[in-house]
Amino acid sequence: MEKIGELRKKFKAVSLEIMPREITVIFLLMLCTSFCFSLMLGLSTLITSVFGNSDSLLALGFSVVLVLAAELFSIVVSFILHYGFLLVLLRMIRGQKVSLWNLFVGFRQKRTIGPALFFLIPFSIVMIITMIPFFLVPDILSMDNMQEFFQSREQVTRLSVITLVIFTFSYFVIFCRFAFVWPYVYDNPGVKKLDAVKKGTALSKGRFFHFLGFQIAINYKFAIMLIVVDSLKHIIVKFSEVKNFWTYILGFTGFVTSVLFVATIALGIPFYYDSILAANPNPSRPSSPCEE
After folding, report:
1. Could you tell me the CA-to-CA distances from 81 to 34, 75, 85 in Å, in that order?
2. What is the mean pLDDT of each run of 10 residues along the chain (292 residues)?
């Protein structure tokens, strides 16, 4: 297994070339995902307004089912978009021709449906774990105290940070096992639905800490930067008289750092796969067994 330091040097060379294009794709992905969730939210609101005021238990139950189905559908769509996103990054790494339409290729490939539906299970586990802080603070669950609680900026900030940390940690630990499923699906167009999950998951077996170490090696600077920026924002808001200017500067710096942080994490997945786990590992190979 290749040493993390050597792998990091190769990643740096690749990321310098790919990162600007990747960030463009990330914003497009965010736009598509936001549109999808907004559409589902609007549909959920419409369903609630039509059936929510009904006295019929059947109508209320039907509305709940429809809202839940809409939300689950939007999550599945986001998973399929994630397949297209990793496909685009993998093709960039391999020096293949890339089109923005590759981002949506998962919607016309039946083999993506099985893994996307399966991912609902670990995603649900992550969301349940993320909700733990809300159950540890009884005041939040009380409708009488909820408004008062959320009026406290300090309490909201603390809860947001704790929730974000729990979500990020649990998401990474749980989904790390499935990180290479989508690249495996791309490289094996003949694979059957859930077989892709089984075989793609097998690729990460025995490599969790190596992959984790690689991600830490390429991301620790951004993580430190985010902590420093957030700490400075709190200090300035509390003690400085010139709050607005420095808050905006630090806010912009934090936003840029966050984008680079996300882009690096995302690019690290197909790079690690293509460098170590693929059938013929080579980060610059020009061809793929999968269709364009």
Report:
1. 12, 10, 6
2. 83 87 84 76 68 57 68 82 90 87 85 84 81 65 52 59 72 79 86 81 84 89 86 73 71 86 88 80 42 42
What's the distance, Cα to Cα, between the start and end of the chain in Å?
31
Rounded to two decimals, the pTM is: 0.76
What whole-number distance in Å separates Cα of residue 63 and Cα of residue 49?
A: 9
Distance CA 19, CA 29 (A): 15
The pair of three-digit structure tokens given for residue 274, joined into one six-digit string: 């293509």
Cβ–Cβ < 8 Å for 268, 215: yes
Token pair 């996103």 in the structure block, residue: 85
Please check whether residue 183 is in contact with residue 269, taking contact to mean a CB–CB distance below 8 angstroms: yes
- Sign of the alpha-carbon dihedral angle for 33, 39, 45, 50: negative
